[in-house]
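Hey, I'm writing a tutorial for new members on how sequence and structure tokens pair up, and I'd like a real worked example in the thread rather than a made-up one. If someone can provide the structure for the chain below, I'll link this post from the tutorial.
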Amino acid sequence: MSLDRYGWGPFFQRQLSGTPSAEIGRVRLATVRKAHVYAADRTVAVSLPRNVGAAAVGDWLLFDPKKRIARKVLARRNALARNRPGHAAKRQVLAANIDAALIVAALDRELRPRQIERYLTSVLASGAAPVIVLNKADACPTSEKAARMLRKADSRYPVIITSATTGQGMGALEELLPRCGTAALAGPSGAGKSSLVNALLQSDHLAVGSVRSQDSRGKHTTTRRELVVHPNGCLLMDIPGIRELYPWSSPEIVDEVFPEISSLGQNCYYRDCRHHNEPGCSIRAAEQEGTIDADRLASFLELRHEQEDLQRSVGERRSGAA
């Protein structure tokens, strides 16, 4: 059986040298010192020695088929990552080598556009194609209104309304899955990511949790990342719920998430304008004129300053290590 069905391609092929007896596998599940991988004709559990380093779900690695020990984790084509909460600069890879990211939000609670903007910042930094999925439409009679609001704010990315319970929108969602590629599902707990995976697979592969009725908050049903194969050849990865996402990105990516705001900054009087109270700030002028949304502007400034601080911390760490 070919490794192509698991996403193997030229980028990884070019990294092969000097390990003729090693076998290739893609990480399906991973812990600190062990990985379960899809090999060409089977799944294998292999050990991860300290000198090999950590592996994330979606990584490719070379392993000794007899000893079942990993020899090397191949370089990643890309990664969806965040800054670990409570750390000035500590990168955590959420998903490796992905082609698309489904940003899942639940319609049985108040929609949080600011949260979606944070996920978009992480997804665009990874290079994956974002798809916004508004799930649990069966619990929301105004789902179309919510979708229109997001499309009006930014029409560049698909917004799909789904219900894993009734099957609404599942066909449209399947059409956006990358054939022979990998799609990661990201979003807060209780958004219904595991239910969506099960609906796409047409099986109860992943455990599904309940949502507290008093505040519509979900439990962390998914506690580990797992790569599963969809019948059409796509691979799906359900990422555990994240309540507050701190993107591992850059100020330039934030500008890309908010193009209608960042483009105005080019007209500011000062080239290093921080868009607070500086004279001649074209962004603040647009806010006063009501031509840009105040909440969206606040989100832009928060994310941009956050990413500037992250870059500064990374730079200081590298300088200290040199």
